[in-house]
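Our consortium's second objective concerns turning raw sequence data into structural hypotheses that experimental partners can test. To show how far this objective has progressed, the report includes one record in full. It was chosen at random from the queue rather than selected for favorable results. The single chain below, 303 residues long, was entered without modification.
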Amino acid sequence: MTDSLPLVSIVVMSYNSAGTIGETLSSIERQGYRKFEILFCDDGSTDATQQMIGRWTDDHRDEYTIGLHLSECNEGVVRNVAKGYAAAQGDWIKLIAADDLLADDCLERFVEEAGRQRADLIFSQCMTFNAHDEHQRIVGWSSRINAGMPREQMLSLLLRKNLFPAPSSFISKSALVAAGGPDLRFRMLDDWPLWIRMMAQGARVGLIERPLVHYRISSESVSSSAGRFVSMMLWNDLKQLYLIYQAPAFSRLERLHRRLEIWLTDLNIVLFGNRRRTGRLLRKLLILSPFYYVSRSVEPDDT
């Protein structure tokens, strides 16, 4: 019976996750669906994360098929996760950050829905949480999309906004390979370009209206200097996303709007070193742009 079930590759992505990876691994151990391998991808942690991975591997080597991909230096999120994708032997890949948790029936539900919906890329909802179990809420995709939407229409929306929560993704290995894998031109942005590439290659999207992943919210990383550095790398990736994927597909008016937004944000960073302040400035300035009203009608709402 088990032999007929698809193999799932769980890719555990970590960086300085010593304080949380134990909870993540416990959530994997509680999975009812048992046909999976575990691939650890650590991006050069400087705390005890790699030592904890080593000890856990020694203790569970007889229970699970385990792969170790532990870097000596930090290469960025995209290259880190790419190692797991390349090493995955499963039919499906479940990526999980080493501070998030899987619901006990996460793999079981994903595998079930993959067969029922005949999809290549499936997203569930996420339940957010923090260390104090406060501010819990369900997040998912925009209410403007559904699994029956034509792929071209969904791709058009995706080019304008990242529609899907990355922690809740369930990826067909064959569809991932067909799309060329993650785009290594990016350092931090591992999800949005990949969804675009996969859908452009014909990947079918499935949706599960239930939280199967618990996504940890941490305010500490936002306020730290390291967090600000990561935010700058992410902003550079977003500018790269515009040049590579968005500009060729946008109308002239959309391109003008986006270039203005990028220019104002870069100017704000030079003057104040804080990208957050730009949000208020943009809302005041871009509302004068004709594209503001166009974008309001085509971009999906947050849920």
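The partners drew two points from this record. The chain has two domains: 2-219, 221-298. The longest strand covers residues 205-216. Both points have been shared with the crystallography group to help prioritize constructs.
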